[in-house]
């Protein structure tokens, strides 16, 4: 069981992994023929960041508590960090501070959605809409999301969790036609959340479970990749209605720090839109929920 994350080890492994990703020529340095490390040397990062080699070495060994925002920014620039990686570095530094307050995160056991939130989710009738936490628990869903993630709700003895489904349920390989891409995204979301909230016991229990039971997860976790995951397109192969390509938008909930509201939508008039309508009809028969097309006729 994982009780918490070793912040110094996380800082060390993250900075080393990012340093390995930067080729010397990317930052105007000669490649050379006698390099014994992949990517940049510590001394090169220190020079690019305007720091002494001794100070950067201490930081890379995990002694990041007290590093100023200016120092963190200089390291981010030297390592060519993207927005998600930069935010992760700042999260790790914040977590290392002795006065840092742990963020308030919602878990699947204690969270009860406000009635108004459930009304808002249920008002989205053309696509799946759901609320998840950084651990990827499904905390609140509209009827179409319940039907969409039917297999996540069908894992005996477990609350619905997208990460657990992705790595521990064989049906995920059918549900996600590009399983590798979904696996990478899933691990990156968990890694990002672990940096924000390094003492979240539920989160680290999940990471420990996945690391123990899935070599695919273990390999990806060791890469230390992070990302922001807010918008784009995904293709799914639903067991009831077949393949759908859907746009998604993820919205951080201002009233509930750490929670994300996600809505999937199909291009109007597309085959995917037709299949979402079919899924709504199936949900109506399976769960007693009236599909949007029939509500329109009834209310009109």
UniProtKB/TrEMBL annotation:
Coiled coil: none
Domain HTH cro/C1-type: 35-86
PROSITE patterns assigned: HTH_CROC1
Superkingdom as given in the UniProt entry: Bacteria
CDD domains in alphabetical order: HTH_XRE
GO molecular function: DNA binding
Listed name of the protein: Transcriptional regulator
């Amino acid at each position: 069981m994982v009780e918490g994350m070793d912040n110094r080890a996380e800082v060390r492994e993250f900075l080393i992994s990012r340093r390995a990703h930067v080729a010397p020529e990317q930052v105007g340095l000669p490649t050379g023929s006698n390099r014994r490390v992949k990517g940049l040397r510590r001394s090169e990062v220190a020079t690019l960041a305007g720091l002494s080699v001794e100070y950067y070495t201490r930081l890379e060994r995990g002694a990041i508590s007290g590093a100023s925002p200016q120092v963190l920014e200089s390291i981010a620039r030297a390592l060519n960090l993207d927005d998600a990686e930069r935010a992760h570095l700042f999260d790790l530094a914040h977590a290392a501070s002795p006065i840092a307050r742990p963020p308030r995160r919602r878990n699947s056991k204690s969270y009860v959605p406000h009635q108004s939130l459930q009304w808002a989710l249920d008002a989205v009738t053309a696509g799946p809409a759901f609320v998840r936490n950084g651990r990827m628990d499904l905390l609140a869903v509209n009827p179409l999301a319940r039907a969409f993630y039917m297999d996540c709700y069908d894992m005996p003895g477990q609350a619905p969790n997208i990460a657990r489904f992705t790595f521990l349920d064989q049906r995920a390989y059918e549900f996600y036609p590009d399983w590798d891409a979904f696996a990478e995204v899933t691990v990156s979301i968990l890694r990002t959340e672990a940096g924000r909230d390094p003492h979240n016991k539920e989160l680290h229990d999940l990471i420990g479970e996945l690391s123990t039971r899935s070599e695919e997860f273990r390999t990806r976790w060791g890469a230390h990749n992070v990302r922001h995951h807010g918008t784009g397109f995904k293709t799914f192969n639903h067991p009831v209605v077949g393949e759908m390509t859907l746009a998604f938008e993820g919205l951080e909930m201002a009233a509930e720090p750490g929670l994300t509201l996600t809505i999937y939508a199909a291009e109007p008039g597309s085959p995917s839109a037709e299949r979402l309508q079919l899924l709504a009809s199936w949900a109506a028969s399976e769960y007693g929920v009236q599909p949007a097309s029939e509500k329109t006729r009834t209310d009109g």
